[in-house]
Design goal:
Length: 115
């Protein structure tokens, strides 16, 4: 289910809110990270690399990320059918921001000892 447009607020025009809506959700970041780490992957490879994801959630999340132009789906017309997923240029451009956010999160976890 695509949640874009469900909730309206004064932050709808904010680029950060827009970006977080594109990558937010339980499974989007693990999929993006798996494709970044491994390069082009087939459906079953993705499913095996992301612990706990169901077929339905993987399929829906891949569709959402494809619609957002973060991943590319390439279908080969052969028997048996083969589909490969990879990051688009937009997806690749997202990686440095995710790495910076991970570094920030790591520092914040280190500061968590003071609580």
């Amino acid at each position: 289910m695509n949640n874009q447009g469900l909730y309206k607020s004064h932050l709808d025009g904010c680029p950060l809110t827009f970006a977080l809506n594109l990558i937010g959700g339980k499974w989007r970041l693990p999929i993006i990270w798996a494709l970044n780490k491994n390069g082009t992957m087939r459906y079953n490879e993705l499913q095996k690399s992301i612990e706990g994801i169901t077929n339905m959630m993987l399929t829906q999340t891949l569709r959402d990320l494809e619609l957002s132009n973060i991943i590319d789906r390439k279908q080969f017309m052969e028997v048996p059918p083969r589909v490969e997923y990879s990051l688009t240029d937009n997806g690749e451009n997202l990686i440095p921001a995710l790495k910076a956010l991970a570094t920030w999160g790591d520092r914040m976890k280190g500061n968590d000892n003071s609580n």
